[in-house]
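Input/output pair, single chain:
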Amino acid sequence: MPKAELTDLVVIGGGLGGTAAALTAARLGQRVILVEASDWLGGQLTTQAVPPDEHQWIESGLTSPSYRELRRLIRDHYRRNYPLTPEAARWEHLNPGFGNVSRLCHEPRVAALVIQEMLSPLIASGLLTVLTEHEAVGAHRDGERITAVLVRSLRTGSERSLHAPLMVDATELGDLLELAHVPHVIGAESAAETGELHAAETADPLDQQAVSWCCALEFRHGEDHTIDRPEGYGHWRDTVDPRWPAPQLSWDDVIPDLLTTRTRPLLTAAATDAEHSTDEDLWHYRRILARRNLDPAFPGGEITLVNWPQIDYWELPLLGGDDATRRSALEGARSLTLSLVHWMQTEAPRPDGGTGYPELKLRGDVTGTEDGLAKEVYVREARRVKALFTVTEAHIGREMRGAEAGSAHFADSVGIGYYRIDLHPSTSGRTYVDIDCFPFQIPLGALLPQDTTNLLAANKNIGTTHITNGAYRLHPVEWSIGEAVGALSAYCAQARTEPHAVHASPGLLRDFQRLLTERLGITLAWPKEIRVPRARHDSIPKEVPAHAR
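Output:
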């Protein structure tokens, strides 16, 4: 039996939510053990290799100070270590990749380095212990409390029994919810359950958003980096899903909010090469290293991150089936991405009339792998806790609330966020659900399970629905959720209380919110003048410096 290890806070899962929880609690003086299955921290930003999907106010003071710190340190890394042009070095809001999806498109490995930099003094102080390449394999309960979490090293198989007053599930799939038998939901609820305009008619636990196994590609002029034809290539090249206008190995896909067909090639006819890509092509969409920001003598090429509709895997769900089904889903997602790469290298139509881009090179060093893919599959949907409060479309959806109503006000707000309600095609055969919503708050009640008093949710496992998870699942929101959870742990220790008591007591809640606003600088409500234009989710108003015009 492993020896019990006692600490103030145990965080299972080192994604953005888990990292923010551990960082915040440790900075507030708590002893924290952070457990992560990968050898990198950062989750969707690093191991899943997804450049940050953010809103148009991300550079303002409304954003969490610690999330702004993360973004600033990523930019500083490029300024310190890369041969930037003088113009790029002076660009306050430097965007290394100059991609459409974010004002900060960068390499996953750089974010992993920066997260280590942020945590380094806390590790040195002894306040923070980070157990990478460890996973939770068991949990013990006593009534409404989790008394211990058993974690196992993926390297050695050794086990540790972790004990703390509060536990955090910040895993990508809500694994601790299942291990600790915490009531939760998977898949889609019915409209009768949630009252949502866009909810499914019938509840379906296997209705889960597509996952994507991302990869990084460099454009190497005059070189041939063609990979072997993957097993399953013929299936992906020839199969046409009823929701899709063509096989996924094509330049055709679906505009999410209009559900009409579009053709978006790797490079348009106007682009002579990757360096001259345009806003209308895939290369520019999630580019993470742009030559225009670098000294002309830099020997490397452009790098883009492939997280495109072409690699949305929707044939099998990750949750709700047996282990064999889950393994098949992961293998299928990898096969689809490798097949797209091979198709682009060999058969993809070019605007000049030719076929194939053999100069595309998988860059596994950028994602921390040997095979060129991300360390982990990109997960859009997890187990969701049955929380004290559940955010529904009626709280944030523009169509349900009225065009100028704004989102519902939550008196227990612990942070703010914004992203469109964005659901990718699902494993049930449903197509996109892509609808407008208002900037929203993060209610404390959505982070607290109904029947477990010392567990906090800090990832995509909070009290949302299948629909509203589509807005609460992105990078800055997940970070803010984790930050609030870490602060709550520190507050409860200082006030000698528990999370459910804070939620139930107006006085304790106000005191905790003062900690968030006055000590941590967190914004709890959006200014009244902010309203969201009806714009598609796949780009934000872009800051274009003079050197990049």
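The first strand starts at residue 4 and ends at 6. The longest helix spans residues 323-346.
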